[in-house]
Amino acid sequence: MKIDRLASDSSSGGLRQGWNRFWFSPVEAMQLHRLRVLAGLVFLVWMLAFTNQQGAFLSLQGWFDRDAYLELSRKETLVQSAPAPVGWSIFYLADGNGSLFQSLYWGGVAIIALFTLGVMPRLTGILTWVVVVSITANPAVSFDADFLMVILAFYLMVGYAFMGLWQSGRSPLERIFGPHDALVFTWFRKHRAPAPRSYAANFAIRMLQVHFAVVLVASGVAKLQLPDWWAGVAYWYPLHPPFQTTAESYAREQGYAPLYLAGLSLAQYIALAWQIGFPAFAWRGGRWRIVLISGGVIGWLGSLFLLGLPLFGPFYFIGCLSYLRDEEWRRISGWFGNRTGRGAEKPFRAAADANKIKVGTQ
């Protein structure tokens, strides 16, 4: 009985330590900085895609105007469920004022650009989240992957909102506007200090990881409710659009139809297994990283060229990159440095390891 009790105490203690290590251990802030730059570039491309038509897409005088909102609230002529949640938007503050609307739009572009560069990330992170949510508010431009951009913006905002607040050595300006080391311009200095370790960065990244895994598993399980996925023909439909497929194209595929359909089915089942089994390998190192990253790259290419969903792919890739650890990021940076002849990470890798040991002993 005593041995069983000791084993139980050891097991519970190990579980508790693992939980605390997962959520509350510091990581290099550079992890969150890299994810911010990648996500910021996606936000910029997404927002600039509305240029020259931003009034039609985002304002209350556009395709989905004030009258459409009233009809949607009555639910008399539209379907019972709205195509997207009707929410708030800073662009609605213009309310017919074209100059103010243009100022809000281009101001939003500037805010996202500043956040991507790491300028005052605590302030620009919050404002970037506001801008991203505002873009998704109008049902006229609602798309399947828009809510994924909100997820990225939210967790980046959370990470920078608390990063460096209670860290010693921070200046008053850094405590108000965010850490100075988030600036992209400081990354290329020949003799720069190692990136500090941050509890806030770890918490934000862990939240993104868990949410990303939930999205993938839920998406995979939802596909199991559709007979096309069970039959292995789900990919056939986007490859054969009804307004582009002709009798001649069918005739050309007739000779290798069995092999073609078998290949589509195999690719579909592999993708489904990757999604549903994602939590089993996402946090594992070694060769599982090949499964993780290659799945993100293939998911990006497939969602873009097969499904025509340009935002799913970047979210998949950034979500997969969020699982990389400190040493894996340094290995990738060192590899790129060797390729470019710079070796950017080598001068301060030893200092970073020393900083890691110092934090771990405190």
Secondary structure: elements and pairs:
Blueprint: H1 2-24, E1 27-28, H2 29-48, H3 54-58, H4 66-74, H5 98-117, H6 121-135, H7 146-162, H8 172-177, E2 197-198, H9 199-223, H10 227-231, H11 236-239, H12 247-253, H13 257-276, H14 278-281, H15 288-306, H16 312-321, H17 326-340, H18 346-361
Antiparallel strand pairs: 1-2
Helix pairs in contact: 2-5, 2-7, 2-16, 5-6, 6-7, 7-9, 9-13, 15-16
Give a description of the structure.
With 362 residues, the protein is an all-alpha fold. The chain folds into two domains: 28-197, no CATH class; 215-321, no CATH class. 66% of the residues lie in helices and 1% in strands. The protein has a two-stranded antiparallel sheet. Helix 2 packs antiparallel against helix 5 (98-117), helix 2 (29-48) packs antiparallel against helix 16 (312-321) and helix 5 (98-117) packs across helix 6 (121-135). The radius of gyration is 24 Å and the shape is globular.
- The tally of helices reads 18
> What is the ordering of alpha helices and beta strands?
HEHHHHHHHEHHHHHHHHHH
Strand content: under 5%
Helix content bin: 55-70%
The SS-based structural class is: mainly alpha
Overall pLDDT score:
80
Instruction: Give the distance, in angstroms, between the N- and C-terminal Cα atoms.
Output: 37 Å
Largest sheet: 2 strands, antiparallel
If you compute it from the alpha carbons, what radius of gyration comes out, rounded to the nearest whole angstrom?
24 Å
Strand order of the largest sheet: 1-2
Annotation, overall tally of beta strands:
2
Number of domains: 2
- Low-confidence regions: 1-10, 343-362
Instruction: Name the overall outline.
Output: globular
